[in-house]
Amino acid sequence: MKKLGLGLACAAAIAASTALTAPAVAQDKVSLVVNTVQIFGTIDPAKVNDYTEYMAAVNLYDGLTTVSPEGQVVPQLAESWEVSDDSKTYTFKLKEGASFQDGSPVEAKDVVYTMKRLLALNEGPSYLFADLIEADAVKALDDRTVEITLNKVYSPFLTNTPLILVVNSDLLAEQDGEWAETYLGDNSAGAGPYQLDNWTRGAQMMLSRYDDYHAGWPNEKPIDELRFVVTRDEATVKALATKGELGMSSQYQGNETYEAISKLPNYKIIAADTATGFYIKLNNQTAPTDDVHIRRAIAYAMDYDTIRDVIYPGGQLNGPLAPVFADAYLDSLPDTEFDLEKAKEEVAKSKYAGSEPIKIVHSYVAKTAFEEEIGLLFKSALEMIGFEVELQPEPWNRITELAASVETTPNATQVFYGPTYPSPDSVFYVQYHSRAKGTWSSMEWVMDPEIDALIDKSRQTTDIAEQNMLYKEIQQKLYDRQSDVFLLTQKKRFAANKCLQGYAWVPMQSWDTDFSRFWWNCDE
């Protein structure tokens, strides 16, 4: 067996949070208000698929492993693991003393149930495992040992294991339905640092600290209570801060909001470079964005400097992968370019030349100020070169519905996408592989057999240097076909109370908002 380097379970890193009100100080209890701009669609760990849902999941549940700020997969419920010589069988030894929030121990049978449930429901993170693991290939060798056998070599497998969010099988066996879907739609059954107190859908969610959390609470003042407040209204967020009630803001506020809150005496701005890309996802299959020249024209028509420096400050993104993945990053791609003359030339090369105005639908998240500004910029530039642009602001849940079929997916949609596991594979497979079609992540509908084959090959390659060469080839092909408009890499910003400590960015979606990694200290 090949033994992987293990190290101690990581209690390091991250989270965002909220304000300490006067009553909370008096009671020596830290209660944080955190605003989100998106609703929590589900808290079922087998169904989560966007940043708010993962934010809930990472606080309510623990996985076999987790991710450090350095991007390393480190122990969580599994204290160690071994990999067979053929790289197909993974044997995990569970941590002794870990318990679910009802006090019962976490055992191998719970991991088996979790995997079988995930595969059976075939939602959320299941796409990572569906073609890789058969239900009977997950076995409990004893109470603390789990064996998972893959049906083929898949080199990023360990980077997926933080998404094996373990559920309490005994508790769920007492609920209605084979997989207790109704119960887990409204309740938590995990071994994570927080438990669900109440949830008013579309408005707020309350979590409280699990005192007996297996990773412990090493800091003097951990975050005792979390209150997620759902609001897109910038004025409401500023008002919460002005009253001292905001612990930590969403990462998707407008510039004016960050600037206003930063001037308040008890607030700071937390900022971090990330692997998250901000894309205009172009539907590669429907007219007129089925033509590569139209897609290139759109890319040339974007005023990148205004977007990156004024509307939503961010870093350079020249292709589908952020430079954070340094070894896999293709640094030979040219910088993005705003040039309306070149845009016109591309239109003239397209099969739609001469049929102006060329009609196009551009969608973005409704009531998000900076996305509306980008939409207006998009419309203004394209209508100067022969397009007729219909702006289509939609609630986020409606955008996810539209993404389900190629026919309903808009021509162009503004989307942030960050890796859901710490590997370039998350960027390529989740967004561009044909098997990942029909989700908000894959609104490009690339459907390219050559790109599929390269992604598949990279997933079966255990030689890191060879794998990185494949990643670079994938980037070049996606760039050549102009799969998206590559707007920027997100510089995450949160407005936070100055007493909130412990934030560190993690290269995995929402893992930086694991609030067990935060604490309250007004002296630091």
From TrEMBL:
Compartments, record wording: Periplasm
Residue span, Solute-binding protein family domain: 72-437
Cited PROSITE patterns: SBP_BACTERIAL_5
Keyword terms, alphabetized: Signal, Transport
Molecular-function annotations in GO: peptide transmembrane transporter activity
Signal sequence annotation: 1-26
UniProt entry tagged with the keyword Lipid biosynthesis: no
Domain of life: Bacteria
CC terms in the record's Gene Ontology section: ATP-binding cassette (ABC) transporter complex; outer membrane-bounded periplasmic space
Major subcellular location class: periplasm
UniProt keyword Signal, yes or no: yes
GO BP term, example: peptide transport
Family (UniProt): Belongs to the bacterial solute-binding protein 5 family.
Full protein name: ABC transporter substrate-binding protein
Originating organism: Flavimaribacter sediminis
